[in-house]
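ARCHIVE CARD
Drawer: 12
Card no.: 0347
Subject: one protein chain, sequence and derived structure
Cross-reference: see card 0346
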Amino acid sequence: MIDIRQSFEYANYLKKEGWITERIENTNYFIKKLPLVGSVIKIQRPEEINFKTTEKLCKKYRVFRVILEPKLTSSFGTIKGDHNLLVSHGFKLSKSSYLPSKTLQIDLTQPIDKITANFKKDARLALRKTKDLGFKIYDWDSLEGFRNSWKKAVGFKRYVPTLKSLIDLYASFSPKKLIMLASHNTGAIFLRTKDTAYYWQAFTSKEGRASLSQYSLVYQGILWAKRMGCKVFDFEGIFDERFPNKSWLGFTHFKKSFGGYEVLYLGCYTKFRFPYFDR
């Protein structure tokens, strides 16, 4: 299954956000030009790694840093032999990653009753308590309202995307590959490719946590993904012991209450270059 970063929709979104996008042999390459120093290129979860194409683009755009996040997975924290291949091409494993290096996925090919049977006790209890909870679906004309709800919920403590960024995202993925939901100062954005749905971004307030509305919104996202024919629901990141970020522990506990299985990726590899020596 193709990762969302390798979709046409995501490439279109980053292009609207100011990135140069190159699509070569079904792989997206994203380039950002920086004043004076050159450019950065990122290749995220490609189906194949083409070192020759990457080097050509590096020379074309005078790239000083390559960010490569392989789709290759690791097993129980061990790195497969592909690590040596990446190192042989000058890459080093970074101490942190841009994309989540560990995630949680639900198999949506199962009947919904089997999916919910794997929910943990706290999730099942929360869904029973919020079964009559209403929620709003936001469309093109209400994106500013969605953002205002986001700002109200988190205040100045957390980053809130700009209205332009939300408009760009909606324009790139709508109408059938994106849904924005909110209820009780809790909101979520779900994106999808043909086969995989992503719990892309979310916010909640103290009121939202008290109302348990975040459980209901995730469940609605799962139902939406299943209606759209997706085979996998991806929670888009949980705590990874290899690259520990303690701020992820809280929402990891929340996400794990929905069951699913863990997926580990190799992590982020970077390579620095000297573009001014390119010919």
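Annotation on reverse: The first strand starts at residue 20 and ends at 24. The domain at 4-98+265-277 is CATH 3.40.630.30 (Aminopeptidase).
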